[in-house]
């Protein structure tokens, strides 16, 4: 399906007393810094069995000799002081100014623990910064995510002074049994719901957070990161942070929507969950003025959809109206896809990739979409090689965020337009990408027509595939997963035809800093895409 590996599990045996001590007592911030020997002690002396993601165990193993990262992986002490975020300690109390300086894009990348150079970048954002007091008096939060590491998440609220604040949590995987903790009245401030999709290939894979403030305002964050420590310290992630959307004024008779339809789309996305726990958030959003939103919200939700309101067909409908390309042959401008996993795309590129996905992403307002099949649109796919992973900060351990399987790859060897993962310009070549982006750039690599940051990997499950609907003349789009992204179009962000992606003195508008290097570098003849089997075959004896 193109999601993170969800079928791999480890079983840990952890005493109830340790769960309580490290998560819910004053010293629970130490929970995320258990060393491998202590993990082993918990396993050997356990009495309570629970399932947890394989990635949870790997965060402990990554600190062992098996990892090849720098000494910064080891902390000097285990107390709360050692948990102070390396980025936030420099921006504490001034994150609001940092967001202002990031206008008009407000897009960031996560810090990399092993590279202190990323900690001081203006375009780096850590999770505690989202909770900084300068952003407003926080009253409650909503997190819709795929994987949740509860101890780590609660630690973020603890160190930023928000312990006990209300949290609504929709998730697919969590390293704790939240229902059991509820029964023991250990998490009275958390409303939670585990999302289970009917289809085995469908997942609640979207990653959206919302923060409500005492003055009634709201902030929306769309990102590629799970709510777990490794995602925010080891991997390259993308984060978009909205402005603080205020309450509508009493004399405001508008619906509070933006030119990008952001409010309507995010309401549609929330209502699709059909969850009672979201009703109060829907009410909050309806009272807020979203007119400042300068991006489009691009959601996917499971179902057989006749309307073009979800997945790649919704993206296509927007690009047809607003994406600008210079007059001439539209194939001059290549499409770039960059993701952390690939789904099964079919027996040839004509089955889905070209006939549906690339066709949708090729849409623009300057030519007839019905003639797009006449052009061969260049398509470039950025995905790490085996060498990329082996030379990363933590070696093969970092490959766990890249879940393309060798079995799937062998069925689609026609897929050859692979591009190396390189991000020297942002100091993240050695930090494996969990970020997912799609864009269209000029042949000279100086301009960009549009840019999409999303949770959606390159898969039919995430974007949808064409199907015949019973009793309907038109075909529908069958989607299996929840996904969420934000689309940047120059018309709404910089009031120009294209984004500048190369900083020059005569630039009339801010330049867009891409999360990968240009020009692109193709795979060498001996390069192969990383597959999860490489890790499992190499380290299977550990499990």
From TrEMBL:
GO terms for cellular component: nucleus. Keywords: DNA damage, DNA repair, Exonuclease, Hydrolase, Membrane, Nuclease, Nucleus, Transmembrane, Transmembrane helix. GO terms for biological process: DNA repair. The active site is at residues 205, 434. It is found in: Nucleus. The record marks 459 as: Interaction with DNA. It comes from the Eukaryota. GO terms for molecular function: 3'-tyrosyl-DNA phosphodiesterase activity; double-stranded DNA binding; exonuclease activity; single-stranded DNA binding. The chain crosses the membrane at residues 12-31. Its main location: nucleus. Pfam families: Tyr-DNA_phospho. Substrate binds at residues 207, 436. The keyword Transmembrane helix applies. Belongs to the tyrosyl-DNA phosphodiesterase family. PANTHER family: TYROSYL-DNA PHOSPHODIESTERASE 1. This is Tyrosyl-DNA phosphodiesterase. It comes from Aphis glycines (Soybean aphid).
């Amino acid at each position: 399906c193109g999601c993170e590996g969800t079928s791999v599990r480890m079983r840990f045996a952890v005493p109830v007393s340790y769960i309580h001590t490290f998560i819910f007592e004053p010293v629970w911030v130490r929970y995320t810094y258990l060393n491998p020997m202590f993990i082993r002690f918990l396993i050997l002396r356990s009495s309570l069995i629970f399932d947890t993601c394989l990635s949870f165990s790997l965060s402990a193993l990554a600190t062992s000799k098996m990892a090849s990262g720098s000494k910064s992986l080891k902390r000097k002490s285990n107390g709360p002081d050692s948990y102070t975020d390396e980025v936030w300690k420099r921006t504490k109390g001034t994150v609001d100014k940092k967001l202002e300086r990031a206008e008009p894009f407000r897009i960031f990348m996560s810090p990399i623990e092993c590279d202190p150079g990323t900690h001081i970048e203006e375009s780096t954002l850590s999770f505690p910064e989202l909770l900084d007091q300068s952003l407003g008096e926080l009253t409650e939060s909503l997190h819709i995510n795929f994987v949740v590491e509860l101890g780590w998440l609660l630690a973020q609220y603890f160190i930023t002074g928000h312990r006990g604040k209300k949290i609504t949590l929709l998730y697919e995987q969590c390293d704790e049994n939240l229902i059991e903790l509820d029964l023991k009245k250990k998490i009275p401030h958390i409303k939670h719901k585990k999302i289970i999709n009917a289809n085995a290939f469908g997942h609640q894979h979207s990653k959206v957070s919302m923060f409500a403030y005492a003055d009634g305002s709201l902030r929306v964050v769309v990102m590629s990161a799970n709510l777990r420590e490794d995602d925010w310290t080891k991997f390259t992630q993308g984060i978009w942070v909205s402005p603080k959307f205020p309450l509508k004024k009493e004399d405001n008779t508008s619906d509070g929507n933006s030119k990008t339809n952001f409010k309507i789309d995010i309401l549609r996305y929330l209502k699709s969950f059909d969850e009672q726990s979201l009703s109060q958030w829907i009410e909050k959003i309806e009272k807020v003025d979203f007119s400042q939103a300068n991006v489009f919200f691009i959601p996917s939700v499971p179902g057989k959809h006749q309307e073009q309101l979800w997945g790649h067909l919704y993206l296509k409908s927007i690009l047809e109206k607003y994406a600008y390309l210079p007059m001439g042959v539209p194939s001059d401008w290549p499409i770039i896809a960059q993701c952390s996993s690939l789904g099964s795309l079919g027996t040839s590129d004509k089955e889905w990739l070209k006939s549906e996905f690339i066709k949708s992403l090729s849409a623009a307002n300057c030519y007839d979409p019905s003639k797009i099949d006449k052009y061969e649109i260049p398509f470039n796919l950025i995905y790490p090689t085996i060498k990329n992973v082996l030379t990363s900060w933590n070696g093969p351990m970092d490959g766990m965020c890249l879940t393309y399987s060798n079995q799937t790859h062998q069925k689609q060897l026609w897929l050859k337009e692979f591009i190396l993962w390189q991000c020297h310009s942002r100091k993240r070549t050695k930090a494996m990408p969990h970020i997912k982006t799609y864009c269209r750039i000029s042949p000279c690599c100086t301009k960009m027509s549009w840019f999409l940051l999303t949770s959606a990997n390159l898969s039919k499950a995430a974007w949808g595939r064409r199907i015949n609907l019973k009793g309907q003349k038109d075909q529908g789009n069958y989607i299996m997963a929840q996904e969420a992204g934000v689309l940047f179009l120059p018309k709404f962000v910089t009031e120009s035809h294209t984004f500048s992606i190369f900083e020059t003195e005569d630039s009339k508008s801010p330049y867009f800093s891409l999360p990968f290097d240009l020009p692109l570098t193709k795979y060498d003849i001996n390069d192969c895409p990383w597959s999860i089997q490489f890790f499992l075959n190499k380290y299977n004896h550990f499990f």
